[in-house]
Structure formats: structure tokens, C-alpha cells
Amino acid sequence: MAGAISQQYMLLLRPSQASFASDSCIEFRSSSSFCFSGQRSVSGWGSYFRRPVGRSGTFCRSGGSVMRVCCTIAKEVPPAAAHKAAAAPQFEEQQQQEQEQEYGSRVINFAAGPAILPANVIKKAQSELYNWRGSGMSIMEMSHRGKEFLSVIQQAEADLRDLLKIPENYEVLFLQGGATTQFSAIPLNLCTSDDTADFIVTGSWGDKAFKEAQKYCKGKVVWTGKAEKYSSIPNQSELNVTVGAKYLHICANETIHGVEYKDYPSTGNDTLLVADMSSNFCSKPVDVSKFGLIYAGAQKNIGPAGVTIVIVRKDLIGKAQPSTPIMMDYKIHSENRSLYNTPPCFAIYMCGLVFGDLLSQGGLEAIERKNVEKAELLYDAIDASEGFYKCPVEKNVRSLMNVPFTMATPEMEAQFIKEASAQGMVQLKGHRSVGGIRASIYNAMPRAGVERLVAHMKAFQARHI
Ligand SMILES: Cc1ncc(COP(=O)(O)O)c(C=O)c1O
User: Fold this and answer.
1) Residue 284: pLDDT band with limits 50, 70, 90
2) Would you state the CATH architecture of domain 364-463?
3) Are 272 and 248 in contact (CB under 8 A)?
4) 302 alpha carbon – ligand 1 mean position (Å)
5) Residue from 292, 346, 343, 356 nearest 174 by CA
6) Given 50, 92, 264, 378, which residue has the most CB atoms within 10 angstroms?
7) Of 104-113, 128-137, 143-152, 206-215, which gets the smallest average pLDDT?
8) What is the rounded CA–CA span in Å between residue 343 and residue 332?
9) Residue 158 φ then ψ, to 5°
């Protein structure tokens, strides 16, 4: 039966109509979007089921994708019904409509972090909150060493590896203490107190990382954008990396100033590249192999506050300074699979749901395309305003995630924010250290949210010139 499955039939599959197992497989190309329930392979969408055991659930795919699914058909749908379904609006449109309805009861949240999360992820968590998958308890109540939570953390790691294509020789750690704790954990793990670590300072977070590292090694700023109020990123030719430096630290996306690396610097022979990706983690593909270490607090793009992801090359683990607190020692966390002490279970669970959602949207290439489109909408509106709105950041390094802009006076900015808030668009105030306006448009911000903001910008300008 499964081998004879037709494309028309596939369009009709809904969780209530079909259940999937791994006993028979078909390959097909769907011209329209569709959903089905079953097990998704750990290798992600668009690729074959490499392993029979994937994550169970309901998944959706956009049209044009080639898929191989292994399934058993539970119920056949008559041709007339199939025809009707094929004529129905495409799934993405439906999803968009649903999301718009969803936003009827929720604000459009432009916060820099903790920030907006995907509505479907929050609903999924809500549906599982009271009784997680038949376990009779919530994630918050179960042992972190029990088989249920182990399956959660292992799946979260597998999905993150899948998303970022993390090489085998890298460890993924789920830690606590925020990205700020990594400002000290990194020099403590990678350097002796005599080693030099270089810093490119493109904003407040890079500066904080440098100041903290100085306590544990010889920190050196090799470039700073402070004089230009952190509006640019240096070219390779402007960099003079210290010979023998243990690592070069960058902040991949400065959340406050809206400055984002598009190409990463080369470090020279043995110097490692270390990046704080807190505010653009999983917003686009990254070649992890270029880095010695990547770290990110979850609360912007991938989950709630409480968990920090560290991706570190395995050969760098195990050389921590003797005084390193046990909770900062990567070796301890690596040996214990991030379960040395009680981990932030609920935050890890939520990250896992977000990773699954990103995979079901087509992975980070697809996410990047959406992010570019959203950011272009906003930057185009700023640039087309003939100076009414100004973005201080050099065009080639403007952030896809955090869009800062200013207006003629602080009073006008306050009025803009007040009026936006009255229309359900909140958290647009720039960071207290720089003022102005900042729209954070992370992965979970729907395009419709950015369009609403752009409409407000145009209407506001029309009323004030
Ligand atoms: C780029 C960047 N790095 C580090 C931090 C500090 O993160 P945490 O509050 O998780 O310590 C932030 C927080 O906003 C950030 O945006």
C-alpha cells in the first residue's frame, strides 16, 4: 500500500488520518505543503531517514521538497476528498492566518531578551505542561536522571547538532549562569594566567567579556569601535592579532548596538576563534569548524532564560586553571553530559522544542532567508524615510536580529514608542545605555509583526512632517 501512495493522497494526510511507523518507505516530491505525524529522522528535513528512530510528533513541510518517509497508512481518503483538499489554501498560508489570529491575544514583542518565542512552541509546551507525554508529571517535576528527561536533553542535543551541523569533535554543553558566566569560564578553561587572549570590541558585550577575562589571563583589545559608538566591524586588514594569543574573542552580534559579523576574522595559526553568539544563535547557518568555542545564552532566539549553550572543540577540554570553580569546568560538564548537578530542565526542554520547530521549518538556511526578508523590510523603511529615522550602523554589518534607530529628539522617540505600544507593539525602547529605539526581530518574530511596525513608522512619519 505505502509504495503505491500518490502525491494527491499525501496532501490529505493529517494526524487524525494517518499514523506512521518505520516499516515501509516511499519517496515523493510534494508540490504543495503538507503535514503528517510520525517520526522525523535525526538527520533533519529534506534528507532520508538515516535511523529508524526519530522524534515523534506532527510535522509540516513546504511544497517542492523531496521526502522519503517510512510509513504505514492508517486510512485511505476517497479521491473526491483528495481533490477538495488539494484545492484548499496551502498550509503555510493557513499557518500565517492562524498566527495572525494568535496575535490577536498576544502583543508583538520586540524585546531584546528574554524575547519572543514561537507561538506554536509555547502552545505545545502548554499542552504538555500538566502531564508530559503520559508520564503523569510535568517536566519541572521529574528527575533529571530519569529516562524521560534524558530523552529530552539527548533529543535537544541531537536536533541542535542537526541544525548547526556540529562536527563530531565538538562537545555540546547545556550550562547555567548565562553568557556572562562564560566571560570568565572561557579564559579559565582555555588559558593559563600568563596566556594572552585578544578581543575585538564591537559593542558593550565584547567589552564586558574583555574586562572579565583580564582577571584570569592577559586580555588585550586588538580593535575597538568605541570612538565611533560601536557602529562598525573591522576588516581583516585592520587587525593585528597577537602572535601566540590563545584565542581571539568576538561578539558575533552586539545586541545593544545592532552590529553583526557577516564574515568571521581569521586568527592565524594556533589562535582559536571564540564567539559570543547569544543574540544570533540559530538565526543562520554557521561553520562551527572555524571556531574553538561558541557560546550563547538561550533567552533571545532559542528558549527561556536559564540555560547557556557552549559548543567547544573536544581537544580544548581538560586544561582548566587549577582554581576554576567546578561549575565552570568544561571537563566536569562534558564527562557528566551536562548533568553534573541539576540542570535547568524546563529551559532545556523548551530549547528542544524550538530546535524541533526550526528543523520543521526547513533548518537554518530557510530561517536565514526569512530573517533577511524581515530585516530588509525594516532597514528599507528606515533608509526610505529620508533621515526621519536613522540607523547608526554601517550598512554592511547591520544586524538581522536587533535593529536600532533614532529620531530627531528623545521626545519624539518616546511618542513613537507610546503609540506603538497602544497598537500592541511593545519593548521598542533602546537599551538604557544608548537610548533611541531598538526592534529585536528574532527568529520567532513573524513577518506580519515587522510589517505592522513598518506601517506604524510610515504613519507616524506622515503625521510629523
Ligand atoms: C551578546 C550578549 N552577550 C552576553 C549577554 C549576557 O547574557 P546573560 O544575561 O545570559 O548573562 C547578552 C545579554 O543580553 C548579550 O546580548
Assistant:
1) very high
2) Alpha-Beta Complex (3.90)
3) yes
4) 13
5) 343
6) 378
7) 104-113
8) 13
9) -60, -40
Ligand 1 centroid – CA 312 distance (Å): 18
For the CA of 308, the closest atom of ligand 1 is 10
As a whole number of angstroms, the distance between CA 193 and CA 197 comes to 10
- 205 annotated active-site: yes
Distance CA 19, CA 378 (A): 42
The per-residue pLDDT for range 382-393, each reduced to its tens digit, is 999 999 999 999
Catalytic: 223? Answer: no
Tell which atom from ligand 1 comes closest to the C-alpha of 252: 1
Query: Whose CA is closest to atom 5 on ligand 1?
Result: 179
Quote the pTM value.
0.80
Which residues does ligand 1 sit against, CB inside 6 Å?
A: 113, 178-180, 205, 251, 255, 276, 278-279, 297
Burial class (CB in 10 A: 0-12, 13-18, 19+), 206: buried
- Tallying the residues shown for the chain, one arrives at 465
Fill in the DSSP letter of residue 152: H
Q: How far is CA 424 from the centre of its chain?
A: 24
Is 132 annotated in the active site?
A: no
pLDDT tens for residues 20-55? 333 445 555 555 555 555 544 433 333 333 333 344
The three grid cell numbers given for residue 35, joined into one nine-digit string? 503535514
* Domain ranges, ordered by start, for the chain: 2-88, 132-360, 364-463
Contact 256/203 with Cβ under 8 angstroms? yes
Measuring CA to CA, which residue among 230, 294, 234, 277 is closest to residue 256? 230
132-360 is classed CATH 3.40.50.300? no
Which stretches within 240-316 are classed as H helix? none
Specify the ligand 1 atom closest to the Cα of 253.
1
Q: Give a three-class secondary structure readout of 183-224.
A: HHHHHHHHCCCCCEEEEEECCHHHHHHHHHHCCCCEEEEEEE
CA-closest candidate to residue 428, choices 384, 460, 397, 396: 460
Cα 313 to averaged position of ligand 1 atoms, centre (Å): 22
